[in-house]
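In this section we walk through a basic example: taking a raw amino acid sequence and producing a predicted 3D structure, encoded as discrete structure tokens. The instruction is simple. Fold the sequence below.
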Amino acid sequence: MFKKILIANRGEIACRVIKTARKMGIATVAVYSDADRDAVHVEMADEAVHIGPSPASQSYLVAERIIEACKTTGAEAVHPGYGFLSERASFCEALEKEGIVFIGPKPKAINAMGDKIESKKFANAAKVSTVPGFLGVIEDAVHAEKIAAEIGYPVMIKASAGGGGKGMRIAWDASEVRDGFERARSEAKSSFGDDRVFIEKFVVDPRHIEIQVLGDGHGNVIYLGERECSIQRRNQKVVEEAPSPFLDEKTRRAMGEQAVALAKAVDYQSAGTVEFIVDKDRNFYFLEMNTRLQVEHPVTELITGIDLVEQMIRVAAGEKLSIGQADVKLDGWAVESRLYAEDPYRNFLPSIGRLTRYRPPAEGKAGDAIVRNDTGVTEGSEISMFYDPMIAKLCTWAPTREQAIDAMSDALDGFVVDGIQHNMPFLAALMRHPRWREGRLSTGFIAEEYPDGFHPIVPSEKEELVLAGIALSAELQRRARLDRMSGRLRPHSGKQRPDWEVRVGDNYHAFKLVETDSAGTTMKMQPCDGSAAFTISTNWRPGNIVWTGTIGADGVRAQVRPTLNGFVIDWKGMSVKAFPMLASTAKLEKLMPKKVPADTSKLLLCPMPGLVVSIAVGDGQEVKAGETLAVVEAMKMENVLRAERDLTVKKINAKPGDSLAVDAIIMEFA
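The resulting token sequence is shown next.
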């Protein structure tokens, strides 16, 4: 077994590999760029080597610097994680020349499966079911249009060397092919240094289901069940689960056996994933093979009990698999939510900045469930514009799918992240979505369920009562704390007064306080609308963010942050402001005029920090709704900003190459 390995990656996956290596008694070496000098993976490793400037192209993607770090530290092997150099055969070959072991498949398998075009040709030759498409060289946009017309719309335009949703576009007509081809090729060039793209038929209402395979250097290959990855945004996975709620045992076995056959055909040695598109009739088509560890591997580990990183290390060290196909048992259900630094209310655009608070839920047993959080950040960490915006992968396991989802919902409610925008509200809302809970999924789920984007969830009347109860509980405790600090007696405060109102959004909820203890931890409230009285009990204290307690018979976990005269409460994807007040105060407040927000309808604001790639219009130009105004790049993704209505450009305030902050004015309209 190896004594020391180097992890050629960063963030959560580097931390993940270090944890297993430590468990196996193997020393670890981290590498880091300028931006990652104080990163968590650098602190966790036994040694760390600086490899260059912040851009990945000058650090994590420079194979020579990784190899030099191995030589300097005496690392015997390299685990590449995912992304960066993980699927680059030339890197694997360069390591072999230096006598350094690559913890992953051999170059033959990477070459055969790592390139999407070549992998489909190989799969066709191996009689693996594939999606109809054109795998040759596409000369230009005109050629792309011709191919798309022959295949039949809709089509998928994909980067050959792509991954993570980059360099990928769906086209429903010829005009979208032209734009999609150029965008996909540009993103592919920027992200992978390879602008080749291919076109294939887009399966309508598809499910994205993948098979985890594991092979050794002695001819043994097994499959470890499947993962459902259909909840995607911009072709990038957001939520995964294992097993799939759609597959039956017959289909699972057929997909697994086909995945194993494909892996054996290329002498696959390591952990890998064969991805399939599955239609509504459970017909499945080979999509691609990822010759590396997948981002979503934890859900497979949770339902099988198999440490995939450990197996990769053991296989790379020449060991035989210690488990056979008959040993693989799927136990319970696991769900993974990818926490991204992005604003769900601005079409999920990237967000960067410092994590002023980062307090994930406790890992381990939580009743009948298990909580796991794979992360590479901590409080105070910087979310950089140079890398992927993923902050963490929150996973839950439970005996059933419903229990796993409920555990995820509870864990998300208790996951505190401040300082940046993040997609937690969307993830929390998803966990309560009826279609998700029923397992009626497709890769178009987000676009279908949120056609106009994700907007703040408006609580129901019953939910407003819960939110009002939390706010009044917090207010009474705040007042009790002030009394204790000042030494005042309880009657001097307003806490014992029975008549209260709580404004939630624009709605007022009146209560009579029937009972309360001296600390405000338990109280009985009688809604004035005639609803049944209920008791609130909590161990929350002012200064805490996570509020836990019971409201009636229900356990509740929410996040409570103070704001002027009230609280901001985040619960189950809702984020509302609640203002508790005496009934006499509420009477006066209702007479106050409403403040009208500023009108920004005549401005194009930069939706996230990013680099202006291009400006598509000029001063005085008339633009039709849907036409491109500008393209802004952030975190390697090009974001096209389009006109929301017919308009005339009055003034251009930015130019290509400008680095803009969020809400910077790009242009003004007449």
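Looking at the output, two observations stand out. Confidence is low (pLDDT under 50) at residues 491-495. The chain has six domains: 4-103, 104-131+206-331, 132-201, 332-455, 461-589, 603-669. In the next section we compare this with other chains.
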